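Chapter review. Work through the record for Major sperm protein before attempting the end-of-chapter questions.
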Amino acid sequence: MLYDFDDHNLFITPKIAYFPTAMGGASRHMMVNGSSHRIAVKIKCSDNELFRVSPVYTLLEPGNAQRLQIVRDPGPPKTDKIVVIYKTTCASSARDAFECDLGAERKVIALIAKEDVTMSIAPTTNLKSILRQSVQKS
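Structure tokens for Major sperm protein:
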């Protein structure tokens, strides 16, 4: 199944990112608005010393997608998380939409840094590749 019931409004893939501790690395994720309303998105991280994310705020129109780039600097092995906070909005800027956090929902992306990770290519965010992988697993 490509979408879980909880993914209808905001679909995020992949939900886990692995990083080598010695070199750090980058991971790309895709956020897709599956609702019929504009969604404001705010990204928070459990360790801003090791991680940088882009964008921090964004607006997603219905049916549109946005890439999320996560970069990790070299550091100790540990598990962190990205919290994706989102809500429907009529605001013209995502930052303005979060002046009040009422009605916001959350999703989590796990960030796992281990010494034995050798992956140097970020996971795909190409929708055709994601759909092909989903069909192959079924």
